[in-house]
Amino acid sequence: VLYQDAHCLLHRDAAARLHRASALAQQAGLRLQVLDAYRPPYAQQLLWRVLPDAQYVSDPAQGSHHSRGVAVDVPLLDEAGEPLDMGTGFDDMRELSHLFNPALPAAAQRNRLLLLGIMQSAGFTFIPSEWWHFELPDARRYALIDYHHLSPEELAALLN
Predict the structure, then answer these.
(1) What's the farthest any 2 CA atoms get from each other in the chain?
(2) Under a CB-based contact definition with an 8 Å cutoff, are residues 3 and 36 in contact?
(3) Do residues 142 and 69 touch, judged by C-beta distance below 8 A?
(4) Distance from C-alpha of 94 to C-alpha of 108, rounded to nearest angstrom
(5) Active-site residue, from 130, 135, 153, 154
(6) Radius of gyration of the chain, Cα coordinates, nearest whole angstrom
(7) Which of 38, 84, 91, 147 is disulfide-compatible with 111, CB 3.0–4.6 A?
(8) In Å, how far from its chain's centre is CA 59?
(9) 130 is known as an active-site residue
(10) Are 121 and 18 a contacting pair, CB within 8 Å?
(11) pLDDT tens, 91-111?
(12) Which long-range contacts (CB under 8 A, 24 or more apart) does 59-67 make?
């Protein structure tokens, strides 16, 4: 268990774009499944201890875009709620998870490109090492958030 609280939080700017991405997926008869969104700094520290590789996990000293509330990890689901074949699972920290890996079957390539198109059309950008990770452009301009040190009012002002 990584998180102390079972809440999915996002900065209001990211939440608006995720809502748009969800509507675009629905137009294609698909759904998005949110697997990770805002990540408290303590959770980022835990991930870094397990995998200190900046290709897959942001160094907590630099700050994660998840800890800014502007990154989201999502796969696509079909009409029945079953995950589409993306070639690897979520959080599979291998080269096979790189977005444009040519070693994948055509169906997985197609699904990754479909997800990418949906998310970019909604205003997100991507990182090449994780097919599931999308974030707001210029994510570093958003402040790091440690919600355990905020009042409910302060948190509501930062996140949607």
Answers:
(1) 48
(2) no
(3) yes
(4) 16
(5) 130
(6) 15
(7) 84
(8) 16
(9) yes
(10) no
(11) 787 899 999 999 999 999 999
(12) 63/140, 63/144, 64/39, 65/135, 65/136, 65/139, 65/140, 65/142, 66/36, 66/37, 66/38, 66/39, 67/38, 67/39, 67/40, 67/41, 67/144, 67/145, 67/146
146's tokens:
């440690």
Please report how many Cα atoms fall inside a 13 Å half-sphere around the Cα of residue 131, on the Cβ side.
28
- Report pLDDT digits (tens) over 6-42: 678 899 999 999 999 999 999 999 999 999 998 887 7
